[in-house]
Amino acid sequence: MFPRDAPHSLVIWLPDYAVTAVAHYAPDFWAWRSGVFEFETSEAERSADLEQFTGDRPWSVLTNLTPEARLLRRRQLESLLDDYRNLPDDPRVTRERANILSDLGNVCATSQDHSQAIAYYQRALELYRQVGDRGGEATTHNNIGLVYSALWEKRKALAYYEQALLLQRQVGDRGGEATTLNNIGLVYSALGDKRQALAYYEQALELTWQVGNPGGEAATLNNIGGVYFALGEKRKALDYYEQALPLRRQVGDRGGEATTLNNIGMVYFALGKKREALAYFEQALELTRQVGDREGEARTLTNIGGVHSDLGEKGKALAYFEQALPLRRQVGDRWGESITRFNIGMVYEALGDLAKAEEQLAIVVALDEAVGHPDLANDRAALERIQAKRKAGSGKR
Length: 397
Known about the structure:
The chain is mostly helical. The chain is about 80% helix and about 0% strand.
């Protein structure tokens, strides 16, 4: 059929990653090819590919890609890395190889492949040090910190951020400094030191204004809102979130937009406006699924479940929590898993199934102990309360 419809010879040039993709998605392609030939990549082509696929790309760009697009990007970068593998180790080539490894780390990190991300970053870090690239070294320290923070190893994350901050100040990278100050603030916030977190965020916000970075400004405003929410100043938190939201949309940061929508929903929930909260959570859920953010999806599902539970719709709440739980486990979010399991336990208690409630709360306490969760004492008290109720119930029988 094909030669009759198009009686001309066709030559199709494909890089290695595309050959693999064709074999996977269109296996019948090979039925009508008459020859396959391999060519060495020229230096000019390698340089063009390097410029296209690596560089200073914010995580939001990668987070906003679909999972399929991130997988394709990873294959592109792996193919490009192969092209550089056998080149002589002069400083230019070493730096370019480090850039590829760093971008591979970014792709893996935003795909929640944390262990592989750290492996790529560590290789990149070694190469940046070899060529004396302190800017690249600082960025990589910061990125490793982000991965450890996602794994809830906050103290380890803080150590990497502090190394990044020192290097960024040495080279005068104010934009990078703002990012790292923000990340340090997030660690202190997670560790419960909200005032210390706020001090770092305010330093970061000033720098984002100085360098004209609306994406960084949005992230910082969002984080400041989070501190005020935790301090009980809900209206002030809402004001900061509502400043962040249009900036998220302006820069096309759909993942960040989902986070801010989620946070606005939390404020409305805390103010007793549950239907408004649900509307914001549902917008956030759609965005997290569009960008393949499983961690954000799990958080949003948990929040939606919380609204339904508070509305007395326990069965519906349980369904949302049970959708969230495997996602928490897939991405290794033990902190978030503790929160979701606690909510499941509370639903089972409300439904009168104290055995299942106790089972969930026992896991919650173990997770809290493992990650140093600040709610450990409260969660242990909840477990003891449920155990006492079970004991009292069995005694009556």
